[in-house]
Structure formats: C-alpha cells, structure tokens
Amino acid sequence: MKHSVVSLTINGAERQMLVAPGSTLIDVLRESQGLTGTRRGCEQGACGTCTVLVDGKTAMSCMLPVETIEGAHVETIEGLTPPQGLHPIQEAFLQGFATQCGFCTSGMIMVAAALLAKNPNPSREDVVRAISGNICRCTGYEAIIDAILDAAVRIRSAAHAEAA
C-alpha cells in the first residue's frame, strides 16, 4: 500500500500529511492532528457525531476518504471556538442545558454553525431539518433546538452591535 501526501487547511492552518490509502477524515483529525473534539460514533455516517465542516458544508468525517478532499478547508469544533472564549453557539448550548453526556454535542454544534452561516434567522422547522441527521440519546432535542434558535439571536445581535 502506497501512502499519499494530502494537503488540507484545518481550522485555518495549512497542513500536509502522509496518509494511508482509505484513511478517513476522522482518522486524520483525531490521530495525526490531535483534534479529538470530533467524536467517533457509529462509523457508518448515520449518527452525525463526527460532523465537521468541509468547505463550509457539513460532512460525516467517518465516511469521508481524506484523499477525496485534497485542498479543502476543514473546520472542527476546535476551530469554531474563538481564542477569547466560547462561540455564541457554544454559549447557548451551555446556558440552555442542551448537553447532557456531551457525546453528540460537537456534531450538533457544527451542524448549527453551518445552518446559521447559511440562514442567520432560521425557523424552528429549519433547525429540526438541519439536525435531523444527528442523534442525541439524552436531551430529547428540545433543549438543542432552543439553543440553536438562541444562538441565532446572539449571533444576529453581535453582528448588529458590530455594525453600529
């Protein structure tokens, strides 16, 4: 088996890495890059736990061969967190008690980030549709939905304050 060199921009930093054939993005993120915020779940693309953003769109990193995204921009939960504190989505999840065991949280937050980047004022139905590929066995989803709607308000308020 011949390894290949793959170039990615991960959380804003350009990286070149040697990868084995068939390596998935989650393998690279967790094992060679030390970014363990992306969780391994079902490893079949059905639970959403491993969700990251690839070129701004959600992707199940457990199913994505890293060779197929050469040159892509990848954002993980670690890249979402600003140096000065928590992202508004993270704040909303914490303050809204939208986490229990926390296993699904990074995937849910990344889905929320993609949704809010595309639609800063989503309806409840938009949020439900966006998280429909992510499984949570603890919260019953209501707190997660409310947190994402709250995060949308926080982000719009921050944007309005910056514009003023």
From TrEMBL:
Q: Is Calcium a UniProt keyword of this protein?
A: no
The segment(s) forming the 2Fe-2S ferredoxin-type domain are 4-80
Q: From the UniProt record, which GO molecular function terms apply?
A: 2 iron, 2 sulfur cluster binding; metal ion binding; oxidoreductase activity
PROSITE patterns, A to Z: 2FE2S_FER_1, 2FE2S_FER_2
Looking up Pfam families in the UniProt record yields:
Fer2 (PF00111), Fer2_2 (PF01799)
What keywords sit in the KW lines?
2Fe-2S, Iron, Iron-sulfur, Metal-binding, Oxidoreductase
Protein name as it appears in the record? (2Fe-2S)-binding protein
User: Could you say which residues form the signal peptide?
Assistant: none
Source organism per entry reads Mesorhizobium zhangyense
Source domain of life is: Bacteria
Q: Is the keyword Metal-binding in the record? A: yes
